[in-house]
Amino acid sequence: MELYLPALLAAFLITVIEMTEVVALVFAFGSEHGSVRHGALGAVSGTAVVSAITLVSGVALLALPRNLLLWSSAIVLAAFGVFLLRSTLRTYRRLRAGASGHAAPTSTSRTLQFAGGFSVGVVEAVETVIVLIALAAAGYGVSALVGAIAGGVLLVGVAVVLHERVRRIKVPTLKVVATALLFSFALFWGGEAAGFAWPGSDLILVPFVAVGIVLVRSFVSVVVPSQVPVETKG
Q1: Measured at the alpha carbon of residue 50, what is the angle toward residues 46 and 55, in degrees to the nearest 5?
Q2: What is the DSSP letter of 229?
């Protein structure tokens, strides 16, 4: 079996680039209760569905209405962003009152985490397999598959390592960043679904998230103005 290195690298890079966004959002979903289980399960399920369709009939996947996927994901992310913003405010209020600990997970939060993970997994997996299908059509299917698998394995390893580091981040900070991340992706995908070409493509997410963090933190300061102690996750 002969591998074509350029095709392998292309598949590896597109997998890492697209699916890194999935990992980031799964961490954001898990910030509410300190667990990425439901968001990760949703992301794996969404990716698996796209992968199954690709294996059965890759070309048919290209006929999926991409705008519908983007709108659906944008709405789900915005909904969870609102949910997480309310949770962030509750966290700061609890700290002000001297309370600690995470709120017990509810069926609504678990459903939103799974739905969010699933929609994100579908969108990013579709973006990835479009490139993989093109490489396969050019005769480099095996190389593309090896590159995609290598990228996936790398991301799983990185996610495991990062999960332990994320757990050490202070709860209020984690929730503020996660809320900004969710709203940023909702805005980004909503704009793409509306046909807006963002300058810099995915790179526009960097200033989006930065501005989002400032706005969310400012909103929290207005609603819960008193200085509060910092709670750590454990």
Answers
A1: 145
A2: P
Helices and strands: H and E segment counts in the chain: 7, 0
- Please count the residues of the chain: 234
193-217 b/e (C-beta count within 10 Å ≥ 16 → b): beeeeeeeeeeebeebbeebbeebb
Residue 40, both tokens: 């990760």
Contacts of 198 (CB under 8 A, 6+ apart): 188, 191, 192, 204
Could you read off the pLDDT of 143-192 as tens digits, one per residue? Answer: 888 998 998 899 888 888 877 777 677 777 888 888 898 899 889 888 98
Question: ∠219-169-42 over CA atoms, to 5°?
Answer: 85
The whole-angstrom separation of Cα 140 and Cα 149 is 14
Domain residue limits, the chain: 5-223
- Rounded Cα distance between 227 and 5, Å, is 55
pLDDT tens digits along 191-226: 988 888 899 888 898 999 999 999 999 998 888 866
Q: Are 228 and 98 in contact (CB under 8 A)?
A: no
Task: Tell me the longest C-alpha to C-alpha distance in the chain.
Answer: 65
For residues 219 and 187, what is the distance between their CA atoms, to the nearest angstrom?
A: 18
Q: Give the residue among 157, 130, 162 at the shortest CA–CA distance from 144.
A: 130
| CB-CB contact of 89 with 220 (8 Å) | yes
